[in-house]
Amino acid sequence: MSTATTPPGTRPAPDLMARGMDTMARFMDQARQMGDVAARQMAALAPAMRPTFAAPGERSPAAALMGKSPMALAQDAMAYAVDATQRSILFWDTMRQAGNTFVEHEKAGCPPVLVFDWDMVVDGRTLPRRCNYALVSIKPPAGFKPTDPAMRPFVIIDPRAGHGAGIGGFKSDSQVGVALRRGHPVYFVIFFRDPEPGQTILDITSAEATFLRTIHERHPQAQKPVVIGNCQGGWAVMMLGASEPDLTGPLVLNGAPLSYWAGEKGRNPMRYTGGLAGGSWPAALMADLGNGTFDGANLVANFESLSPGNTWFRKYYNLYEKADTEAERFLEFERWWGGYFLMTRDEIRWIVENLFIGDKFARGEISAGKGASFNMRAVKSPIVVFASAGDNITPPGQALRWIADVYRDEQEIKALGQTIVYLVHDDIGHLGIFVSGKIANKEHTEIANTLDLIESVAPGLYEMRITGAEGTGLNAGYQVELVERSVADIRAVSGEAENEAFPAVARISALNQMAYDTFASPVVRQFATERTAEMRRQMNPMRARRYMVSDQNPAMAPLAGLAAAVKENRAPLTPDNPFLALERAWADGVEQSIDRWRDLRDAWQESAFHAVYGTLAAFGVANDAVVEPAEAVAEALGDLPDVRAALARIAEGGYAEAVVRMMILLAKARGGVRRNRLERSNALLTGEEPFASLSSAARQALIREQTVVVEMAPEEALATLPALLPDPADRMRALTTVGDVAGPEEEMGERAQAMLARLRAVLAPPPALPAPQAPEAARRHGRPKR
Predict the structure, then answer these.
(1) Residue 481 pairs with which residues in a beta bridge?
(2) 231, 400, 469, 681: which has the fewest C-beta neighbours closer than 10 Å?
(3) E strand or H helix at 779, and its extent?
(4) Is 645 found in the same domain as 589?
(5) Mind telling me which InterPro entries this protein's record contains (predicted)?
């Protein structure tokens, strides 16, 4: 009898056991994930489930009724009935006007909603790679000073996520208005309702690069333009900065979701939508039903579902409650909100697969064509990120997490010569980031003021803090400070980002999309025509409900005359009418009920998402879905060519290198820099020799190199300062200059004062050598006789 033997390492039992243990560990992790989800949901739902009555210090409606006599109540009831009827007529007349505006806007092709006049500069429909984008130049209105062609231009790119262009300049107090008031030339990237046949996202990026080249030609004496991207426009700005780094100046990203997987459990439900829909195939289906065109009204409906209490009830109740004063603001905003734009099938699939589902931007996996990919590390311009904790469409995690995904730590940001500044508002909503007049007059104004100085900031990661109040106190105006932050701070702000459930979504989405493209798409395309596609668009509830309240509906015809009569005989209520208090309490209850339903819906969706995709991940569906970017395994920072070159020249240079190095050492010790110090630093670097003779690029290169030196070898950077300043007169001049920029010494913290003392000690004149002593004197001092 012979016995068969199994070669070592080929026995299946240990392998199966190892796999089983690994699967069990993943299941245990999934159980912990579900427990965490449940705990976060309970914490988020608990405040919303509590009933809300009168605010502290206010009388409840019932108490107001109890204090009235029957006759007074009857009079109040009659007055309320008249007022409510009049407000109803005014409300529906405003809705009729909004419907008519929608109809006229659609017939006109949904032009930009800019309140500023503009001239066409470049029409993307005439470029070799045609697209429906265009560059326009904004004309300063009456009362604004003329723009200075030598000042840095501002370029604003609005989101194309269902709506049209112009939200960044649809009123005077806006991003456009802020730049125009400062005298900057302002350009706006608009787009038309209908895409060019076959256009892609890469065609748009190519067109925007052409726009920037044209601006350079129109302003040869100006610095590179500031490029501002709102929401989806932020993707465009970063793609532009990564593909054409020599064309862009500072980049400003407002509410731009560059890391779509990031967020907090129990708070940011929109990131689960793609997974619950099964991936990207529903978007492809809707585009196929649209005869190759995706209707942006579907995206707007998704946005509205995030805050149903407001979008389905509160904003209309506000119009009803303030029917005498709210109509103009409502109609102004509704003109933009009700303008729906179209995308090609390729565009919507690119967005969903690369950003919503795949989250590929931060990992450098988005194809730029010809085998290349968009790499955010290639962006060399300073970047300003504006996010808000009150934004439920782009929460801070989605706006900021890409920083932690692209860069390993803040030292790498400095070594690569990058400057990133972020600003997080406490409570403003998503649209408020772009449209709020208060935001324009504070945050956007202060960002614009800081952009003039940002290239004088040493590379690194900073948080912008705006304190004070406009026009109050002895020092009227806001105080701005850039505080040094770490990548660890970004991870803390951005919440959950690494979760195996999301890579599982990407994997399942790819499988579902392949199945749809193979079996269903050919059939759907066979039956879809342009006539049926247009019929579907017109029947979309987002459009149909606006048509229904326009003059196209005969039932709305009497409202114009009735509204005119009401305005002539208006009898508004007194503020103390108890029935008005009851109405407001009822409205609050309706909104809260809708929002409670939303919270329960979001909790169920989040639980379902983690239960389905977390379980799939536990089975190993996403094991090979997470691809580590090439940058994560790059060589050590000290081996980077620019770092090696900077360290090799650590003892080389002169007055300019020494002063910049000293200012960086002092700023590092301080942990931040206020804008008044930035202003003094900028005045030095641009107005005094030897800095004034340097080009802007040379000054930035000098700052980047000295930042690398200070960051990688701080002690040697300090010790070699005397080699840069051999002349005692230059040393004193350098110390005086740095002290003037730093400001009063008593305002410095202990660390900064200690660093200033070290700078003075290192650059102090060497002590004079003692005179030769006689041998007797030498013996008296114990020195051996030579």
Answers:
(1) 465, 674
(2) 469
(3) helix 775-780
(4) no
(5) AB_hydrolase_fold, DUF3141, PHA/PHB_synthase
Same domain, 390 and 244: yes
Q: What is the DSSP string of 549-606?
A: TSTTSGGGTTHHHHHHHHHHT--PPPTT-HHHHHHHHHHHHHHHHHHHHHHHHHHHHH
pTM of the model: 0.88
Q: Which two tokens stand for residue 62?
A: 């019932």
Q: At what angle do helices 70-107 and 559-568 cross, to 10 degrees?
A: 130
In a domain, 366, yes or no: yes
pLDDT tens-digit map of 715-739: 999 999 999 999 999 999 999 999 9
The answer to whether position 736 is within a domain reads yes
Whose tokens are 């243990």? That residue is 21
Residue 197 or 22, more confident = 197
- The verdict on residue 164 lying in a domain is yes
Query: Quick count: other Cβ atoms within 10 Å of Cβ 362?
Result: 23
Is 646 in the same domain as 730?
Answer: yes
Handedness of CA 201, 204, 206, 209 (dihedral sign): negative
Specify burial of residue 271 (Cβ count, 10 A radius: 0-12, 13-18, 19+): buried
Q: Which long-range contacts (CB under 8 A, 24 or more apart) does 710-716 make?
A: 710/458, 710/661, 710/664, 710/665, 710/668, 711/411, 711/414, 711/415, 712/411, 712/415, 712/637, 712/638, 712/643, 712/646, 712/647, 713/647, 713/650, 714/665, 714/668, 716/650
Cis, peptide link before residue 282, omega less than 30° from 0: no
Question: For residues 63 and 672, what is the distance between their CA atoms, to the nearest angstrom?
Answer: 54
User: How many Cβ atoms are within 10 Å of 522's Cβ, its own excluded?
Assistant: 10
Range of the domain at 695: 641-762
Distance CA 412, CA 418 (A): 9
Contact 677, 743 (CB under 8 A): yes
Q: Are 210 and 189 in contact (CB under 8 A)?
A: no
Based on the domain organization, do 598 and 608 belong to the same domain?
yes
List the alpha helices (DSSP H) in 416-466.
432-435, 437-439, 445-451
End of a domain among 438, 470, 496?
Answer: 496
Q: Which of 369, 403, 411 is nearest to 256 (CA)?
A: 403
478 and 615 part of one domain: no
pLDDT computed for residue 629 by the predictor = 46
Residue 191 neighbours by CB under 8 Å, 6+ apart: 132, 133, 134, 160, 164, 165, 341
The count of domains in the chain is 3
Cα within 13 Å of Cα(124), Cβ side? 30
The CATH number given to whatever domain includes residue 138 is: 3.40.50.1820
- CA-CA distance, 72 to 77, in Å (whole number)? 8
Residue 551 burial (CB count, 10 A)? 14
Residues forming a β-bridge with 372 = 369
Distances from the Cα of 504 to the Cα of 272, 499, 610, 705, angstroms: 12, 9, 10, 43
Q: How confident is the model at residue 182 (pLDDT cuts 50, 70, 90)?
A: very high
Stretch 691-701: mean pLDDT, rounded? Answer: 89
Q: What is the pLDDT of residues 588-608, one digit of tens each?
A: 999 999 999 999 999 999 889
For tokens 């002063």, the residue is 659
Please check whether residue 363 is in contact with residue 354, taking contact to mean a CB–CB distance below 8 angstroms: no
Residues 6+ apart with CB under 8 A from 69: none
Query: What backbone phi and psi angles, to 5 degrees, belong to 756?
Result: -60, -40
